[in-house]
Amino acid sequence: MNPDYRPYHPKWHRTPIPIFWWVRKRAYLKFTARELTSLFVAYSAVLLMVHVRAAGGSEEAYERFISWLQSPLVVALHVVVFIALLCHTVTWLNLAPKAMVIRLGGRRLPDAAIVLGHYAAWLSVSGLLAWVLVGT
Amino acid sequence: MRRSQEPGLWALFSAGGMLAALVLPVLVAVLWIAAPLGWVELPTHANLRALIGHPLTRLVLFAVVSLALFHWAHRFRYTLYDGLQLYHLNQLIAIITYGTATVGTMVTGYALVVFP
Predict the structure, then answer these.
(1) Is A16 on the interface with B (CB under 8 A)?
(2) Of the residues A89, A102, B32, B61, which has the fewest C-beta atoms closer than 10 A?
(3) Domain coordinates of chain B in residue numbers?
(4) What is the predicted ipTM?
(5) How crowded is residue B31: how many other Cβ atoms within 10 Å of its Cβ?
(6) What is the CATH number of domain B3-113?
(7) Residue A113's CB: how many other CB atoms inside 10 A?
């Protein structure tokens, strides 16, 4: 049983919150949309392993997987996935200064510098991975 | 779920969020948009196998996939918890989300060890 749940405990009055409380305000909707980008993160992780599996199989099986990737609906889905992942990345990197405080010479590094550093890291990692996949 | 497990789960969520933010957009763009549309050319089947066969590639893949799954588990858990106010299902939701991430991590590890 949920340890937070106490049977027979008197219940004090609480204003009921509607199930769709997060639709009412723009800020809440944005928050929920951000949280739901995690679904696309999970999808990409799973598809990455499906791609690895396909590469590990026979040449014909791999070709079949590639032609599935080429069908227009699948490409359209992956464009949606890409946009959601961009939202994840931008919101995540912008929050970085809230999660870390870096001190240099006794002074706190300004938030903008931390964000800029993260964007530089994103650019470098993206460049490196694109080079590994396409440039070799 | 005891309070003491929270920091560990948060660390997995945080590491997964960071790795996903840095790595996933370019992978999706190159592997599943640009290459299928013929904008760029991916390595051949044999070269891709060799690339994944490298221990460093497999280590990176394992870290990215498993931590991304734990990132999803943590965020999705609290989205269900707060968004749909499923307070009474707290424990069940935690078991399903973290359980899925754990099983996914084990399957990923196995698939990468036995690759190809």
Answers:
(1) no
(2) A102
(3) 3-113
(4) 0.91
(5) 21
(6) 1.20.1300.10
(7) 13
